[in-house]
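Subgroup meeting minutes
Present: P.N., E.W., G.H.
Scribe: E.W.

1. P.N. recapped why we're keeping a running log of single-chain structure predictions: easier to compare across weeks, and new members can see raw inputs and outputs side by side.
2. G.H. added today's entry (56 aa).
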Amino acid sequence: MLGTRVEVTKGDGASVGSEISAFTGLGPAGLLDTMTITRWDAPYRVGARDSSGARI
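Output recorded in log:
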């Protein structure tokens, strides 16, 4: 997504339990979303739960 920076904040970013954060915005203004990987069957399926508890 244009204007989104994603970084791994815990784990390797390629396994269940890893955490990532995604910042979408311009400069200091924007939204930060944190997610935990809940399923890793790459490249076929990857599941995540965001910080609000919603499944992605």
